[in-house]
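### Sample
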Amino acid sequence: MTSSTERTNIALSADELASFHKNGYIGPLTIYSPDEMDQIWKTVRREALDRSHAAYPEVDSGIGAPNIFNYDRHLDIELLAEHVCNRRIVDRVASILGPDLLCWRTEFFPKYPGDEGTDWHQADTFANASGKPQLLWPGESEDDFGAGTLTVWTAFTESTRENGCLQIIPGSQNKMNYDETKHMDYNEGRINSEVKDGVPRGFFGYDYRQLQVDPHWRPNEEDAVSLTMEKGQCVIFWSTLMHASLPNTATGKNYRMGFASRYVPTKVRIYPDTDHIEEYGGSISLENWAAVLARGEDRFQHNKITSKTLKGTPIRPA
Ligand SMILES: O=C(O)CCC(=O)C(=O)O
Ligand SMILES: [Fe+2]
């Protein structure tokens, strides 16, 4: 296959794009074969234990705990830097956001047997936990409804209903049911303690219901779709789409590991007037943070961009 045919094949088709605009998500899409994914995850899992070059090395929390110290490991782990620039991902994201793309955040989302599901939520400015907008689209003021970010959630292990797959409500991306300027209080003791509409769920120590615009509203769970995925598949969705996950009710070693990469076009301002973030009971300095130009070029220069990992290896945009 020539590279030009491959490029045409990787972009979203007209039908896929139409479906994305209607439903707010597209997928599952295959990025890696299950064997390739196994190999990548095996290496990443081992390398993640070495935090000596991590952007936020303060606390050794391992990748068992979803918290801010596990943000942005693509900045020090080469395979993750390659993942966020993978053409199978970024060419599809470019079909939606345009050719010039920044990856501004990655996060591990593990669910181990016994873990609660993730609360239903939507994120637009990402002020949800930190209290301060983390994204500002051109022309958007801090209180407006903006466009959020595109999240590419890749199943690093198989993701099933039993081990806590992602759920979404198709078409819910254009109306925010949550007000990110409201406050949520963090309480570690809340983890694994609540059942919401019959499902054990929480938001990693927060209760996302605290942000509801209407405290009496309930998500329409009958409309929810459970996104089961083979390892190596991903789903692309607006962060403003209603999303959640099921609890992991499996036993033994059946954990699911999601890896979320978040993209915006280069015109967006990331972390405006912010030098640190406080979320999930921790605080990190953004001194080592930089966006990665994952595709195309940066004609705006609004944001700090790095072309190397924190270990000094080159990062090559697609
Ligand atoms: O994996 C999960 O449970 C939640 C993922 C999520 O909220 C996200 O990727 O934005
Ligand atoms: Fe989310």
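Residues 25-306 form a domain with the Jelly Rolls fold (CATH 2.60.120.620). This sample (Chlorinating enzyme) is used throughout the tutorial notebook.
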